Amino acid sequence: MNKLITGLLVGAAALTAVGAATLAQDEVPKQAKKSAEHEWLLQLVGEWDATWDTEPGNPESADSWTSHESIKAVGDLWIVSEGEASGMGLDFTSMLTIGYDPAEGAFVGSWIDSIQTRMWTYRGTLDEDRRVLTLAAEGPSMTDPTKTAKYEDRLEIIDADHKRITSVGMNDKGEWEQYMQVNFTRRK
Length: 188
Known about the structure:
This protein is mainly beta. It has a single domain (36-186), classed as Calycin beta-barrel core domain (Lipocalin), CATH 2.40.128. Helices cover 15% and strands 53% of the residues. It has two helices and ten strands, in the order H-H-E-E-E-E-E-E-E-E-E-E. It has helices spanning 2-22, 36-42, and strands spanning 46-53, 62-74, 78-87, 90-101, 106-113, 120-126, 132-140, 148-159, 162-170, 176-186. It has a ten-stranded antiparallel barrel. Strand 3 and strand 4 (90-101) form a beta hairpin.
């Protein structure tokens, strides 16, 4: 058995070496260049504490959730956020990725968390003032899970130490309705 595994590993290494030797110089992958959009994302790197308002307009719902978010850079091109939150008797963890794809001319990303089985995918744009990144997604309707609905997470930079995410969904009348707001403060 060990000879078989060793033989397979040697064969794979030999194929890799032959393949690498036959690559023309112009076929060698090059490092993607960081753009202004990538630089915008890098300002989010750090440790953040947050409070959530899950019932906009109801002052009693503010601060009903607390969370911590740790955002790291993946090179100069992507950010990855790992979050932990507690509220309403639930604890959950989440992971968010965001990058910028120059070929698509859009921010791209994904969201997963420990309380749902859906992986959300984002496509986003910056506003003219470069303060709000709107990440659009489509998923199950909150009022009828057999239908899909449009959603947006609007990430607003308040200043270097404060940001806000406002989450909205399109209702049956085609109007955006806010269903959550999260206010973040950078840990010092």
